[in-house]
């Protein structure tokens, strides 16, 4: 596999995928801001993306201007270049931002063996109640409207890819593990892989990832990737599933 070509394909997909979901885009010479007026609670859909060389102070001021003018109290800035993001950490920390590093990981080698199990494709309507419960658990102080927006925003994904929701149900029919597979032009991204704490250790995540990889291959994809927190334990687990680090990006977030 040509790694540089793969990275260019992923970058092109991520840029197109993000832009097609936006209701507004503000272009800068060094990047752009994405706005999604229908889902203001989704910070990921309302953020500033830095793609070129720029003084961090300029970015911070731009984030205040464009996000503030559109009614957002949060600030979220994404540097797509790892070294530039690392160099900006001090300035963003001084401005009250918290930093997070995200690693893109590409699957390499043989596919893990597909096993018979409880993973199935679900409709969004089947998945939505579980998503709402998970968001309520993660952000109990947020409004029901915010929880609904965080769940419903995944409807936007179909604007830029073919989407399959994979999940595992318990005996009562409630979804207790899930993930989202997006396929476009021979490329597959599997994200938001979640297993409820009380159901961990039962192989559900492995089943989800394995099923996603096989479905991607069956759809003609020759490149499968996902993202993970640089300092989180899933990164090492994904390595055991055959994923390898490709590149790192930086996010800076300021909470209202």
From TrEMBL:
Q: Return the Pfam families for the record.
A: Acetyltransf_1 (PF00583)
InterPro entries in the record: Acyl_CoA_acyltransferase, GNAT_dom
Q: Where is the N-acetyltransferase domain?
A: 122-256
What is the recorded name of this protein? GNAT family N-acetyltransferase
């Amino acid at each position: 596999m040509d790694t540089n070509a793969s990275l260019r394909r992923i970058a092109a997909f991520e840029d197109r995928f993000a832009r097609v979901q936006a209701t507004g885009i503000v272009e800068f010479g060094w990047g752009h801001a994405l706005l999604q007026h229908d889902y203001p609670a989704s910070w990921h859909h309302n953020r500033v993306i830095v793609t070129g060389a720029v003084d961090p102070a300029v970015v911070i001021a731009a984030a205040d201007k464009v996000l503030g003018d559109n009614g957002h109290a949060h600030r979220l800035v994404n540097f797509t270049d790892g070294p530039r993001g690392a160099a900006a950490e001090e300035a963003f920390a001084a401005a009250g931002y918290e930093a997070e590093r995200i690693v893109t990981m590409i699957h390499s080698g043989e596919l893990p063996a597909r096993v018979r199990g409880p993973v199935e494709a679900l409709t969004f309507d089947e998945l939505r109640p579980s998503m709402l419960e998970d968001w309520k658990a993660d952000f109990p102080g947020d409004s029901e409207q915010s929880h609904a927006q965080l769940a419903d925003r995944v409807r936007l994904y179909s604007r830029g890819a073919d989407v399959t929701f994979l999940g595992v149900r318990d005996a009562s029919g409630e979804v207790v593990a899930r993930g989202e597979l997006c396929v476009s032009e021979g490329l597959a991204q599997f994200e938001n892989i979640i297993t409820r704490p009380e159901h961990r250790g039962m192989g559900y995540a492995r089943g989800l990832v394995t099923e996603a990889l096989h479905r991607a291959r069956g759809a003609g994809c020759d490149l499968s990737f996902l993202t993970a927190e640089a300092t989180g334990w899933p990164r090492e687990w994904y390595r055991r599933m055959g994923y390898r680090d490709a590149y790192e990006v930086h996010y800076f977030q300021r909470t209202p």
